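An instance as discussed:

___
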Amino acid sequence: MGRSDGTLITDLGVLRRMLPSLMPSRNGSIVYYEQQLDLSRTLPWLEGRQPRITLYELAIAGLVRVWSERPQINRFTAGGRLYQRNEIAFSISVKKSLDENAPLTAIKAVFDPNDSIDDTCKKVEALIETGRDKKRETDSEKEMRVVTKLPVWLMRWLVRLQRIADWFGLLPRFMTRNDPLYASAYVVNLGSVGLDAAYHHLYEYGNIPFFIVLGRVKKAPVVDENGELVVHDVVHIRYSFDERITDGFYTSTALERFREYIEDPTLLEAPSAQ
């Protein structure tokens, strides 16, 4: 069955093929995972680098590299089947301002794993600026503004109709291209508002199998290479992911590779091997 956003995977073991039927919902298939990343080398690298980039931008650059190198985590389930996503796309949430009453918007971008770290970080920066622009609505905001003017019963009927079409792979590209809930992962930076990372549910609408939350930078005890207990700057990252897309060993090794990229960002300065 063809889709505009993915290619059906046919060479699956019987258990992997059965999982979407055994566990038909994303939140019924959710796995939680946490990392504490040591930033003792990361923060000096960020401070001394020109052009300047943020930890959040660096994190997305690392995720782009890992999603390229470990393609099984760039899968998704739809219609009881498993698909390989055709592109690497991340969605983010942006508040229009730091005012607690400011609206929140979601925005998505497609990333090229062959881009340099600077190119990727510039794209993230532009994405955030677009989300913060109070004078211009994003494509998804325009669509939601139109839909939310409808009666609730009709709005729910349209959402149900879209989910049925999605089940059968009938959604045209223009309906998923800019939708933030059709992406490789949703990446949120709670550290930008001074909060620690939290676990987040997955969305049943759309096909995002990963929700990734970065917390604030803080001091914490860590064991150094000499076995000594020292205090370093760290950041906690919490993941919620759909276990139906691939096995836990593959996912954990991919996320440990992400740790290596963030704890030693010089690794990302080399071109991608993909």
The first helix runs from residue 14 to 22. The first strand starts at residue 6 and ends at 8.
